[in-house]
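Researcher: I'd like a structural prediction for the single chain below. Treat it as a standalone chain; there are no partners to consider.
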Amino acid sequence: MKIILTILCGLMVLFAGGCTVLAGAAGPVALIPAGVVVLNVLVLGAMHGFADPRKWVFLTLAILDGLAVILLAIAWLSFGMTDSQLNGLAVLLISALAVKGAMTYAVARRM
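Model: Treating it as a single chain, here is the predicted structure.
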């Protein structure tokens, strides 16, 4: 579980970091992906012993992952279901974020 969560958090750091760089000129909008990057880096550091693990970091990240799953599902159901090329990507993203959120919550419960 630790390896899969590490891979998913690392991918999220790369994706959200790219979003932060692209949205950097947009001002306060860049704070959202930057916050996601910070939370994922804190989780990665706590899982591998580089930082003192705090339960609120894991719970906050699990809640944000759950919100992302809900928002992606709503967006996919509202305008993406008719596009056959988007269906596979949407299912992959929604399921990966759901697994990541569940594993983050499971790690937080063990603390």
